[in-house]
Amino acid sequence: MSRTPHETPLHSPGDHSDAAGVTSDGAAWLASAGTYPRSMLALWEEHPDAPIVLPCGSVFDVVNAPAVFGRRMLDRLWDEGPGSGPVAAFRGRMLLFAAPGTAARLPSLLGWEEWGGRGQAVPPLLCHGTGDAVTVPALNGDASPAGARWLVGPDTRHPWLPGPEILLWAAVRAARSAVRISIFPPADQDAKVYDVSRRR
Question: How far apart are alpha carbons 189 and 51 in whole angstroms?
């Protein structure tokens, strides 16, 4: 089932664009993960450049991958699969937002695949679920000193989130493609644009 992104951006005073793709509905969804959503939204209205720590497990889980491998997973999801949920870059890692319960299930699915043979190993994926928290980038689209920024910004109050089976599929495809890829990435690898209207 396809959907189109909502079009109400969250702007700070003086903003004229929504480079991050984070809409007011997307901000409300992120805030719903916290204990005090209204206070969080008020904070973001006053300080849209502030990153914030959110708990995982109830609204979303997060799969945290090394940047290059995470980019390959993201490319597989968009080029060959159903698209992705929100995705952020943070401290040289890729944060893929996933359906609650993914953090508990994905490691066992990866173990079932018996990785390690013939160079098809998936690098360590950190799975954040119940009891964990993650830092999300600022909503205004400005990259922080740590390089935190949204690659696919939240754009609705009920975003589609991939589950463990879809992320397993993306990891398998990314690992297989890594074996055939040159060690030199293309010069414009950061210029990839993901069409959120294709997300299912």
Answer: 25
CA R_g for the chain: 17
74 phi and psi angles, rounded to 5 deg? -65, -40
77, 174 contact by CB (below 8 A): no
User: In the chain, at which residue ranges do the beta strands (DSSP E only) sit?
Assistant: 52-55, 61-66, 87-90, 93-98, 126-128, 133-136, 149-152
Is there a contact between 81 and 174 (Cβ–Cβ < 8 Å)? no
Which pTM does this prediction carry?
0.78
The gap from C-alpha 111 to its chain's centroid, in whole angstroms, comes to 23
Query: Cβ–Cβ contacts within 10 Å for residue 118, how many?
Result: 7
pLDDT 10s digits, 55-70: 999 999 999 999 999 9
